[in-house]
Amino acid sequence: MKITEKTITNNTSKLETAILADQINRHQQLLLTWECEKVETAAMVEQFVCHFDVPVVCIGSRVEFLFPLQSLKALMIHVQERWNNDRELLASLEQIQEHHQILWRAGRFTFKLNEQPIIYGILNVTPDSFYDGGKYQSIAEITRQIDKMVKAGANVIEVGGQTTKPGGFTEVDPQEEIHRIMPAINILKHDYQQIAIAVDTYKLPVMEAAIKAGVDIINDVQAFDTNQKLALMAKSEVGMVTMHSSRTHDYDNLTVAIQKFFEHNLGTIAAAGINLERVVLDQGIGYAKIADGYQDYAMMRNIDQLNYLHRPIMVAISRKGFGQKLFNLAKEDRLDVTLIAETAMYLRGGRVLRVHDVEETSQLVKMIDTINNSYWFRSTNN
Q: Would you place residue 129 in the very low, low, confident or very high pLDDT band (cuts 50, 70, 90)?
Protein backbone atom coordinates (compact mmCIF):
# COMPACT_ATOMS: atom_id res chain seq x y z
CA MET A 1 0.00 0.00 0.00
CA LYS A 2 0.97 3.63 -0.29
CA ILE A 3 -0.41 7.11 0.34
CA THR A 4 -0.04 9.88 -2.22
CA GLU A 5 -1.12 13.49 -2.45
CA LYS A 6 -3.90 14.30 -4.83
CA THR A 7 -3.73 17.45 -6.94
CA ILE A 8 -6.63 19.81 -7.49
CA THR A 9 -8.28 19.29 -10.87
CA ASN A 10 -10.59 21.49 -12.91
CA ASN A 11 -13.41 18.97 -12.84
CA THR A 12 -15.35 20.99 -10.29
CA SER A 13 -16.82 24.49 -10.31
CA LYS A 14 -14.61 27.51 -9.77
CA LEU A 15 -16.11 28.00 -6.31
CA GLU A 16 -15.52 24.38 -5.31
CA THR A 17 -11.96 24.58 -6.60
CA ALA A 18 -11.38 27.80 -4.64
CA ILE A 19 -12.78 26.22 -1.47
CA LEU A 20 -10.54 23.20 -1.83
CA ALA A 21 -7.49 25.37 -2.55
CA ASP A 22 -8.32 27.43 0.55
CA GLN A 23 -8.44 24.29 2.68
CA ILE A 24 -5.08 23.14 1.37
CA ASN A 25 -3.20 26.45 1.37
CA ARG A 26 -4.70 28.47 4.22
CA HIS A 27 -5.97 25.77 6.55
CA GLN A 28 -3.00 23.48 5.82
CA GLN A 29 -4.99 20.40 4.87
CA LEU A 30 -3.63 17.53 2.78
CA LEU A 31 -5.70 15.88 0.05
CA LEU A 32 -4.58 12.25 0.28
CA THR A 33 -5.23 9.00 -1.56
CA TRP A 34 -4.54 5.69 0.17
CA GLU A 35 -4.01 3.05 -2.50
CA CYS A 36 -4.82 -0.51 -1.43
CA GLU A 37 -4.35 -3.85 -3.16
CA LYS A 38 -7.86 -5.12 -2.46
CA VAL A 39 -11.33 -3.65 -2.05
CA GLU A 40 -11.65 -5.45 1.30
CA THR A 41 -8.47 -3.80 2.53
CA ALA A 42 -9.76 -0.39 1.43
CA ALA A 43 -12.89 -0.86 3.54
CA MET A 44 -10.71 -1.57 6.57
CA VAL A 45 -8.53 1.44 5.80
CA GLU A 46 -11.62 3.66 5.54
CA GLN A 47 -12.67 2.60 9.03
CA PHE A 48 -9.17 3.35 10.29
CA VAL A 49 -9.11 6.84 8.74
CA CYS A 50 -12.54 7.61 10.22
CA HIS A 51 -10.90 7.61 13.66
CA PHE A 52 -9.27 10.91 12.68
CA ASP A 53 -12.66 12.64 12.19
CA VAL A 54 -11.89 13.79 8.65
CA PRO A 55 -13.86 13.70 5.37
CA VAL A 56 -13.21 10.28 3.81
CA VAL A 57 -14.63 8.25 0.91
CA CYS A 58 -13.84 4.75 -0.32
CA ILE A 59 -13.76 4.29 -4.10
CA GLY A 60 -13.01 0.69 -5.00
CA SER A 61 -9.52 -0.04 -3.74
CA ARG A 62 -8.76 3.66 -3.03
CA VAL A 63 -9.50 5.69 0.06
CA GLU A 64 -9.51 9.46 -0.42
CA PHE A 65 -9.51 11.86 2.52
CA LEU A 66 -8.69 15.38 3.67
CA PHE A 67 -6.20 15.44 6.52
CA PRO A 68 -4.70 18.24 8.68
CA LEU A 69 -0.98 18.73 8.16
CA GLN A 70 -0.49 19.37 11.88
CA SER A 71 -1.72 15.81 12.62
CA LEU A 72 0.42 14.02 10.04
CA LYS A 73 2.81 12.81 12.73
CA ALA A 74 -0.10 11.28 14.66
CA LEU A 75 -1.23 9.50 11.47
CA MET A 76 2.28 8.13 10.95
CA ILE A 77 2.41 6.79 14.50
CA HIS A 78 -0.91 4.97 14.23
CA VAL A 79 -0.11 3.63 10.75
CA GLN A 80 3.18 2.26 12.03
CA GLU A 81 1.41 0.57 14.94
CA ARG A 82 -1.00 -1.20 12.60
CA TRP A 83 1.04 -1.75 9.41
CA ASN A 84 4.61 -1.77 10.73
CA ASN A 85 5.76 -4.27 8.10
CA ASP A 86 4.53 -2.26 5.12
CA ARG A 87 7.67 -0.34 4.23
CA GLU A 88 6.17 1.20 1.08
CA LEU A 89 3.29 2.64 3.08
CA LEU A 90 5.52 4.10 5.77
CA ALA A 91 7.96 5.46 3.19
CA SER A 92 5.16 7.20 1.31
CA LEU A 93 4.07 8.99 4.49
CA GLU A 94 7.63 10.01 5.27
CA GLN A 95 7.93 11.46 1.76
CA ILE A 96 4.78 13.54 2.26
CA GLN A 97 6.07 14.76 5.62
CA GLU A 98 9.41 15.75 4.09
CA HIS A 99 7.69 17.55 1.21
CA HIS A 100 5.70 19.74 3.59
CA GLN A 101 8.43 20.32 6.16
CA ILE A 102 8.96 24.01 6.90
CA LEU A 103 12.55 24.64 7.93
CA TRP A 104 14.08 27.67 9.56
CA ARG A 105 17.85 27.74 9.10
CA ALA A 106 19.21 30.08 11.73
CA GLY A 107 22.95 30.18 12.27
CA ARG A 108 23.96 27.07 14.18
CA PHE A 109 20.40 25.73 14.20
CA THR A 110 17.89 24.20 11.83
CA PHE A 111 14.37 24.21 13.23
CA LYS A 112 11.67 21.90 11.86
CA LEU A 113 8.55 23.95 12.44
CA ASN A 114 6.01 21.25 11.52
CA GLU A 115 7.40 19.00 14.21
CA GLN A 116 8.11 21.55 16.93
CA PRO A 117 7.07 25.19 17.32
CA ILE A 118 9.61 27.71 18.57
CA ILE A 119 9.35 29.43 21.93
CA TYR A 120 11.20 32.68 21.29
CA GLY A 121 11.98 34.48 24.55
CA ILE A 122 12.33 38.26 24.77
CA LEU A 123 15.16 39.78 26.82
CA ASN A 124 15.15 43.57 26.61
CA VAL A 125 18.29 45.07 28.17
CA THR A 126 16.90 48.56 27.79
CA PRO A 127 15.77 51.18 30.30
CA ASP A 128 12.59 52.03 28.37
CA SER A 129 11.00 49.01 26.64
CA PHE A 130 7.23 49.06 27.01
CA TYR A 131 6.97 46.02 29.32
CA ASP A 132 10.31 44.97 30.79
CA GLY A 133 12.36 48.14 30.35
CA GLY A 134 14.82 48.60 33.21
CA LYS A 135 14.35 45.12 34.68
CA TYR A 136 17.52 43.55 33.32
CA GLN A 137 20.39 45.97 33.60
CA SER A 138 23.00 44.19 35.71
CA ILE A 139 24.86 41.02 34.79
CA ALA A 140 23.21 39.22 37.69
CA GLU A 141 19.70 40.24 36.56
CA ILE A 142 20.40 39.27 32.96
CA THR A 143 21.85 35.90 33.99
CA ARG A 144 18.89 35.07 36.23
CA GLN A 145 16.38 35.91 33.51
CA ILE A 146 18.22 33.88 30.87
CA ASP A 147 18.39 30.88 33.19
CA LYS A 148 14.69 31.23 34.00
CA MET A 149 13.70 31.32 30.31
CA VAL A 150 15.93 28.38 29.40
CA LYS A 151 14.52 26.23 32.20
CA ALA A 152 10.99 27.19 31.13
CA GLY A 153 11.52 25.91 27.58
CA ALA A 154 12.85 28.73 25.40
CA ASN A 155 14.43 27.64 22.11
CA VAL A 156 15.56 31.17 21.19
CA ILE A 157 16.42 34.16 23.37
CA GLU A 158 16.33 37.55 21.68
CA VAL A 159 18.36 40.40 23.11
CA GLY A 160 17.03 43.89 22.46
CA GLY A 161 19.10 47.02 23.02
CA GLN A 162 16.64 49.65 21.81
CA THR A 163 12.87 49.82 22.01
CA THR A 164 10.65 50.59 19.00
CA LYS A 165 7.47 50.84 21.07
CA PRO A 166 4.41 52.68 19.73
CA GLY A 167 3.88 56.26 20.78
CA GLY A 168 7.47 57.20 20.15
CA PHE A 169 10.89 56.07 21.31
CA THR A 170 14.36 57.49 21.73
CA GLU A 171 16.84 56.24 19.16
CA VAL A 172 20.19 55.35 20.67
CA ASP A 173 23.60 55.45 19.08
CA PRO A 174 24.64 52.11 17.52
CA GLN A 175 27.66 51.89 19.82
CA GLU A 176 25.44 52.34 22.87
CA GLU A 177 23.11 49.64 21.58
CA ILE A 178 26.05 47.28 21.02
CA HIS A 179 27.32 48.06 24.53
CA ARG A 180 23.91 47.12 25.95
CA ILE A 181 23.46 43.79 24.16
CA MET A 182 26.96 42.29 24.31
CA PRO A 183 26.91 41.11 27.95
CA ALA A 184 23.76 39.03 27.34
CA ILE A 185 25.15 37.65 24.06
CA ASN A 186 28.35 36.60 25.80
CA ILE A 187 26.46 34.87 28.63
CA LEU A 188 24.34 32.95 26.13
CA LYS A 189 27.35 31.96 24.02
CA HIS A 190 29.37 30.78 26.99
CA ASP A 191 26.75 29.03 29.15
CA TYR A 192 23.79 28.15 26.90
CA GLN A 193 25.08 26.76 23.63
CA GLN A 194 21.81 24.88 23.12
CA ILE A 195 19.89 28.17 22.80
CA ALA A 196 19.73 30.16 19.57
CA ILE A 197 20.75 33.79 20.10
CA ALA A 198 18.72 36.52 18.40
CA VAL A 199 19.22 40.28 18.30
CA ASP A 200 16.43 42.77 17.70
CA THR A 201 17.87 45.70 15.75
CA TYR A 202 17.33 47.73 12.58
CA LYS A 203 20.81 49.29 12.55
CA LEU A 204 23.50 47.99 10.20
CA PRO A 205 26.45 48.52 12.61
CA VAL A 206 24.62 46.61 15.35
CA MET A 207 23.85 43.77 12.92
CA GLU A 208 27.51 43.64 11.93
CA ALA A 209 28.65 43.49 15.55
CA ALA A 210 26.05 40.88 16.47
CA ILE A 211 26.98 38.61 13.57
CA LYS A 212 30.67 38.97 14.40
CA ALA A 213 29.82 37.99 17.99
CA GLY A 214 28.20 34.76 16.73
CA VAL A 215 24.48 35.35 17.03
CA ASP A 216 22.09 33.09 15.12
CA ILE A 217 19.21 35.43 14.26
CA ILE A 218 18.66 39.08 13.35
CA ASN A 219 15.17 40.53 13.80
CA ASP A 220 14.72 43.72 11.75
CA VAL A 221 11.52 45.74 12.17
CA GLN A 222 12.46 47.54 8.94
CA ALA A 223 12.45 44.29 6.91
CA PHE A 224 16.09 44.41 5.74
CA ASP A 225 15.26 47.46 3.69
CA THR A 226 18.70 48.44 2.37
CA ASN A 227 21.19 46.88 -0.02
CA GLN A 228 23.83 47.09 2.70
CA LYS A 229 21.76 45.00 5.10
CA LEU A 230 21.00 42.43 2.41
CA ALA A 231 24.66 42.20 1.44
CA LEU A 232 25.58 41.59 5.07
CA MET A 233 22.94 38.89 5.40
CA ALA A 234 24.08 37.25 2.17
CA LYS A 235 27.60 36.87 3.58
CA SER A 236 26.29 35.19 6.75
CA GLU A 237 24.12 32.20 7.70
CA VAL A 238 22.00 33.91 10.33
CA GLY A 239 18.26 33.49 10.48
CA MET A 240 16.20 36.55 9.57
CA VAL A 241 12.93 37.84 11.01
CA THR A 242 11.50 40.28 8.48
CA MET A 243 8.67 42.50 9.66
CA HIS A 244 5.86 44.35 7.94
CA SER A 245 5.20 47.82 9.36
CA SER A 246 2.42 50.27 8.56
CA ARG A 247 3.00 53.11 11.00
CA THR A 248 3.03 55.65 8.18
CA HIS A 249 0.00 54.60 6.12
CA ASP A 250 -3.42 52.92 6.02
CA TYR A 251 -4.72 50.20 3.72
CA ASP A 252 -7.84 49.52 1.70
CA ASN A 253 -7.53 45.72 1.63
CA LEU A 254 -5.24 44.83 4.53
CA THR A 255 -4.80 41.15 3.69
CA VAL A 256 -3.87 41.77 0.06
CA ALA A 257 -1.49 44.56 1.05
CA ILE A 258 0.37 42.37 3.56
CA GLN A 259 0.54 39.50 1.08
CA LYS A 260 2.00 41.78 -1.58
CA PHE A 261 4.45 43.25 0.93
CA PHE A 262 5.84 39.85 1.87
CA GLU A 263 5.85 38.57 -1.71
CA HIS A 264 7.96 41.58 -2.71
CA ASN A 265 10.11 41.43 0.42
CA LEU A 266 10.85 37.72 -0.03
CA GLY A 267 11.59 38.32 -3.70
CA THR A 268 14.08 41.04 -2.80
CA ILE A 269 15.74 38.84 -0.19
CA ALA A 270 15.99 35.91 -2.61
CA ALA A 271 17.41 38.19 -5.33
CA ALA A 272 20.22 39.11 -2.92
CA GLY A 273 21.29 35.46 -2.92
CA ILE A 274 19.78 34.57 0.46
CA ASN A 275 18.14 31.18 1.02
CA LEU A 276 14.51 31.82 1.97
CA GLU A 277 14.68 28.93 4.44
CA ARG A 278 16.48 31.47 6.64
CA VAL A 279 13.45 33.79 6.79
CA VAL A 280 10.57 34.13 9.28
CA LEU A 281 7.66 36.52 8.69
CA ASP A 282 6.30 38.96 11.28
CA GLN A 283 3.07 40.79 10.43
CA GLY A 284 4.02 43.72 12.67
CA ILE A 285 1.15 43.72 15.15
CA GLY A 286 1.51 46.90 17.20
CA TYR A 287 3.12 48.72 14.26
CA ALA A 288 -0.06 50.03 12.67
CA LYS A 289 -0.69 53.72 11.99
CA ILE A 290 -3.12 53.69 14.92
CA ALA A 291 -1.40 51.69 17.65
CA ASP A 292 -3.51 48.92 19.22
CA GLY A 293 -6.38 49.62 16.83
CA TYR A 294 -8.54 47.19 14.91
CA GLN A 295 -5.89 46.62 12.25
CA ASP A 296 -4.00 44.65 14.90
CA TYR A 297 -7.00 42.41 15.60
CA ALA A 298 -7.49 41.87 11.88
CA MET A 299 -3.87 40.71 11.61
CA MET A 300 -4.41 38.32 14.51
CA ARG A 301 -7.29 36.82 12.57
CA ASN A 302 -5.79 36.77 9.07
CA ILE A 303 -2.39 35.29 9.96
CA ASP A 304 -3.36 32.11 8.08
CA GLN A 305 -3.61 34.15 4.88
CA LEU A 306 0.21 33.98 4.80
CA ASN A 307 0.47 30.19 5.04
CA TYR A 308 0.67 29.92 1.25
CA LEU A 309 4.13 31.51 1.39
CA HIS A 310 5.45 28.38 3.18
CA ARG A 311 7.55 30.35 5.63
CA PRO A 312 7.31 30.29 9.43
CA ILE A 313 5.13 33.05 10.84
CA MET A 314 5.92 34.80 14.10
CA VAL A 315 3.33 35.53 16.78
CA ALA A 316 4.64 38.73 18.37
CA ILE A 317 1.88 40.13 20.57
CA SER A 318 3.20 39.54 24.08
CA ARG A 319 1.57 41.93 26.58
CA LYS A 320 0.97 44.53 23.87
CA GLY A 321 -1.47 47.39 24.13
CA PHE A 322 -4.58 45.55 22.91
CA GLY A 323 -4.97 44.37 26.51
CA GLN A 324 -5.27 47.97 27.62
CA LYS A 325 -7.40 48.95 24.63
CA LEU A 326 -10.06 46.27 25.16
CA PHE A 327 -9.95 45.68 28.91
CA ASN A 328 -8.08 48.62 30.44
CA LEU A 329 -5.41 46.24 31.71
CA ALA A 330 -2.05 47.41 32.97
CA LYS A 331 0.93 45.77 31.28
CA GLU A 332 1.50 43.61 34.37
CA ASP A 333 -2.03 42.18 34.04
CA ARG A 334 -2.07 41.29 30.33
CA LEU A 335 -0.78 37.72 30.48
CA ASP A 336 -4.19 36.04 30.24
CA VAL A 337 -5.37 38.03 27.20
CA THR A 338 -1.97 37.55 25.59
CA LEU A 339 -2.24 33.77 25.95
CA ILE A 340 -5.76 33.78 24.53
CA ALA A 341 -4.72 35.81 21.48
CA GLU A 342 -1.58 33.71 21.01
CA THR A 343 -3.70 30.56 21.04
CA ALA A 344 -5.92 31.93 18.28
CA MET A 345 -2.88 32.78 16.15
CA TYR A 346 -1.12 29.51 16.93
CA LEU A 347 -4.15 27.56 15.74
CA ARG A 348 -4.02 29.54 12.48
CA GLY A 349 -0.41 28.69 11.73
CA GLY A 350 1.81 30.98 13.83
CA ARG A 351 4.62 28.62 14.82
CA VAL A 352 7.20 31.06 16.27
CA LEU A 353 5.91 32.55 19.51
CA ARG A 354 7.88 35.62 20.59
CA VAL A 355 7.04 36.09 24.27
CA HIS A 356 8.03 37.51 27.63
CA ASP A 357 6.34 34.67 29.53
CA VAL A 358 8.12 31.50 28.41
CA GLU A 359 6.75 29.04 30.97
CA GLU A 360 3.11 29.88 30.34
CA THR A 361 3.58 29.86 26.56
CA SER A 362 5.27 26.46 26.73
CA GLN A 363 2.21 25.17 28.58
CA LEU A 364 -0.06 26.71 25.94
CA VAL A 365 1.79 24.96 23.11
CA LYS A 366 1.87 21.60 24.88
CA MET A 367 -1.84 21.77 25.70
CA ILE A 368 -2.95 22.75 22.19
CA ASP A 369 -0.67 20.22 20.51
CA THR A 370 -1.90 17.47 22.83
CA ILE A 371 -5.52 18.27 22.00
CA ASN A 372 -4.91 18.55 18.25
CA ASN A 373 -3.09 15.22 18.08
CA SER A 374 -5.32 13.16 20.37
CA TYR A 375 -7.26 10.51 18.44
CA TRP A 376 -8.98 7.63 20.14
CA PHE A 377 -8.17 4.07 19.22
CA ARG A 378 -9.34 1.22 21.40
CA SER A 379 -5.77 -0.08 21.75
CA THR A 380 -4.57 3.28 23.09
CA ASN A 381 -3.28 3.00 26.63
CA ASN A 382 -4.68 5.94 28.58
A: low
